[in-house]
Design brief:
This protein has about 325 residues and is an alpha/beta fold. It has two domains: about 220 residues, Spore Coat Polysaccharide Biosynthesis Protein SpsA, Chain A, CATH 3.90.550.10; about 70 residues. Helices cover about 45% and strands about 10% of the residues. It is built from nine helices and seven strands; from the N terminus they run E-H-E-H-E-H-E-H-E-H-E-H-E-H-H-H. Strands 3-2-1-4-6-5-7 form a seven-stranded mixed β-sheet, sandwiched between helices. Helix 8 runs antiparallel to helix 9. The longest helix has about 35 residues.
């Protein structure tokens, strides 16, 4: 299997016939073998029946995964990835706002030597206030914090080589951070302009509250990508900073006591200094505990701390 197209689906009964028409029109032009993996994320309409119908009509290409309840887009994508067999994996939405006709262009970009090709919706057909503006802010924040500069993290339409999707699990709202994980294992990333259409049927599942969830997940992603192998850097760094502040406050109190005979222990800065020292010391101890956990994790599972892009003249069976 060369190509797997993974599509999470939730209450899209009206869009599915149009989606399949557009998919077949594009996929049948490809020379490589391909499969469609559609994951029903607990739909309450006739989505499951429609997926079952198409899977029975075309068992060669269509696979359907039906989840027991609505787990969210990230879990649905994870389920699709777990069942995908292709060396190249393309993700897209089922609402037809992504255009399947962009897939060959993205595959061609992969062939130029990239490991991940991300779609960029320059002409978005969404509400400017509730969708576009929050998305623009989120994209800027994510790019600044992670160092992986993309203009449209929220665009589901992306093409990946399988190897950059291995070694991590998705949860929360973390599907949009897949490029960050991929970059952490050395993926070459490109961004291409893709088409974007207004939604024809149904209503969007996204709102302003999702921006807050994304920002919170960003803290987790930043920690996992930057500090999961050496947690002492963040815990020890934070602890060291607090202890330096504590020492500076204590020095100030001592100098003030020497010059102006003002009591050290009677000042609220004394309690603040002591509290900062205790917090700093505890933070360093937490860092050491985290280091032990990381070491246990890697050694117990024999999980390497590196990833290999290619091997030459090596016997992989040894």
């Amino acid at each position: 299997m060369n190509l797997s197209l993974v599509i999470p689906v939730f209450n899209e009964q009206d869009n599915l016939p149009l989606l399949f028409d557009a998919l077949y029109k594009t996929m049948n032009t490809l020379k490589d073998s391909w499969e469609l993996i559609l994951v029903d994320d607990g739909s309450r309409d006739k989505t499951k029946l429609i997926l079952q119908e198409y899977a029975e009509k075309d068992p060669q290409h269509v696979r359907a995964v039906i989840l027991r309840r609505n787990y969210g887009q990230t879990a649905a994508i994870a389920a699709g990835l777990d069942h995908a067999k292709g060396e190249i994996i393309v993700l897209m939405d089922a609402d037809l706002q992504n255009d399947p006709s962009d897939i060959p262009m993205m595959l061609a970009k992969l062939d130029e030597g990239y490991d991940l090709v991300s779609g960029l919706r320059k002409q978005r057909k969404d509400n400017a206030v509730t969708r576009n503006f929050p998305s623009m802010i989120a994209n800027w924040v994510i790019s600044r914090v992670t160092g992986v500069h993309l203009h449209d993290y929220g665009c589901t339409l992306k093409a990946y080589r399988r190897e950059v999707l291995e070694g991590f699990r998705l949860y929360g709202e973390m599907h949009r951070f897949i490029p960050v994980y991929a970059a952490s294992v050395g993926a070459n990333i490109a961004e291409v302009v893709v088409s974007h259409h207004p939604r024809k049927f149904g209503k969007t599942k996204y709102g302003l509250e999702r921006t807050a969830k994304v920002i919170l997940d960003l803290f987790t992603v930043k920690f996992l990508v930057s500090y999961s192998a050496k947690p002492i850097y963040i815990f020890g760094g934070t602890g060291g900073l607090l202890m330096i502040i504590s020492a500076a406050l204590m020095l100030y109190l001592l100098v003030r006591r020497s010059l102006f005979l003002i009591s050290v222990t009677g000042s609220p800065l004394f309690q603040t200094s002591v509290m900062f020292f205790i917090l700093g010391f505890q933070s360093m101890l937490m860092g050491l505990i985290a280091e032990l956990l990381v070491r246990t994790y890697h050694e117990s599972q024999r999980k390497p701390t590196y990833t290999v892009r290619a091997k030459f003249n090596l016997n992989t069976n040894e």
